[in-house]
Specification:
Radius of gyration: 21 Å
CATH superfamily of the largest domain: Gcn5-related N-acetyltransferase (GNAT)
Shape: globular
CATH class of the largest domain: Alpha Beta
Oligomer: single chain
CATH topology of the largest domain: Aminopeptidase
Structural class: alpha+beta
Largest sheet: 13 strands, mixed
Distance between the termini: 47 Å
CATH architecture of the largest domain: 3-Layer(aba) Sandwich
Number of helices: 11
């Protein structure tokens, strides 16, 4: 077997094409856009490359990826490894790097060679643990390996994998750090009981709810940043967003944002919660075979205009800690429901709530209170290089 570092245009094409060949006969896999994966590794487009970490800024962002080929030159696997300076020292136990974009034929030796390669690279750069499979960026993309829900297509920028991947990770020595649930439900109205709870906060003095306005997106970016950092930024392995981060994130979403799918909650004019939904773009991108040139953009617009996509996905919820368990989450859901009721022949009738960590008990309870069902499960694994160290799962958020 022979490792090839991905550097040339041809290597990059093979990195993406290999996955397409691997899943060619799988009816559920949807090919990601090549550009979305390439952005992750592009120093001019991924702002993480400009970040540093450590007290003196000595930790630099680094990323590398490899193809693994057999003796006849046929690609049999791929993997990436990276050091995220924003999160590497957030875990006090050990500096932790990451590996991701793992794809592999059904061969344990090949999988183990890929894991060994990533471990060696990270170890040489001072890392003491490795999380996988993860993204070189935020958690809402390419995070976790699918372990349940193989009969459901993946949402945009979420992974779909073969069932045998789970065994490869665990046999090599990875241990489950946490699971991420995807909940789904028909977009019928919430129950009378939940509507009463939502109405209590919606009619309470000082509270207001409104959807995003693209004309004032910079203000919404700052609202998003404040709530995100308060509700998520103190969790292990989650980096706080900078002003530039939040603006870049919403700018990236802007072409596909539909204003009535992104909601904010305010108390006395200050943002205290957000509820971000997006049209489930994979239902459109599945027609494009990974490309997004001029022709594909026209195809995308044509499919979008047909309004055949009936599915949205909830990207992320966030409520400032001091306003949690007060009905704010339900208030945003109810505000959206009222907006939806006002529109005849509304396009969307099904929603999936993406990326609900098993450690986030409040969000798990919220999804279940909305009568949503678990339709997919992903697992994020951790491997400690010092095998004598005790392993701990992600700490539960209460």
């Amino acid at each position: 077997m022979n490792f090839i570092e991905v550097e040339t245009k041809e290597h990059k094409k093979e990195f993406n094409d290999f996955a397409a060949r691997l899943y060619k006969h799988n009816p559920y896999w949807i090919r990601p856009l090549n550009k979305d994966i390439e952005i992750v590794f592009d120093e001019t487009q991924n702002p993480l490359f400009k970040q540093t970490g450590g007290e003196k800024g000595e930790i630099k962002a680094q990323a590398i990826r490899w193809l693994l080929q057999n003796n006849t030159g046929k690609t049999i696997g791929r993997i990436a490894a990276f050091i995220n300076p924003k999160t590497v020292l957030q875990d006090n136990e050990q500096p932790t790097g990451g590996a991701g974009f793992f794809e592999c034929i059904n061969d344990e030796k090949v999988a183990f060679a890929l894991f060994d390669k990533a471990k060696k690279w990270l170890s040489e750069r001072g890392m003491e643990a490795m999380d996988a499979p993860i993204n070189f960026g935020e958690r809402n993309q390419w995070w976790g390996v699918l372990i349940d829900g193989f009969d459901k297509p993946p949402n945009y920028q979420m992974g779909y994998h073969f069932e045998y991947y789970k065994d490869f990770f665990e046999k090599w020595g990875f241990q489950e750090y946490f699971q991420q649930f995807t909940y789904g439900r028909e977009m019928y109205d919430v129950s009378e009981r939940l509507e009463k709870i939502a109405n209590r906060v919606m009619t309470k003095e000082g509270y207001s709810f409104s959807h995003i306005n693209k004309a004032t997106i910079d203000k919404h970016a700052e609202d998003f940043r404040e709530v995100y950092n308060a509700s998520w930024g103190n969790h292990a392995g989650v980096a706080k967003l900078t002003v530039e981060d939040s603006k870049a994130l919403l700018k990236q979403m802007k072409p596909i944002l539909e204003e009535d799918l992104v909601w904010f909650a305010y108390f006395e004019g200050k943002a205290i919660g957000f509820y971000v939904m997006l049209p489930e773009l994979n239902q459109l991108f599945k027609h494009l075979n990974g490309k997004f040139g001029i022709l594909q953009k026209l195809q995308f617009l044509w499919h979008k205009m047909q309004k055949k996509n009936k599915k949205v996905f909830g990207v992320i919820f966030g409520v400032a800690p001091e306003f949690q368990r007060k009905g704010v989450e339900l208030g945003m859901v109810m505000a959206y429901q009222k907006e939806r009721r006002s529109k005849p022949n509304y396009q969307y009738d099904y929603i999936e709530f993406n990326w609900i960590g098993d450690f986030n008990t409040n969000m798990v309870k919220l999804c279940e209170s909305l009568e949503a069902e678990k339709v997919k499960r992903h697992a994020t694994y951790r491997y400690l290089f010092d095998r004598t160290k005790p392993f701990e799962r992600m700490k539960e958020i209460k």
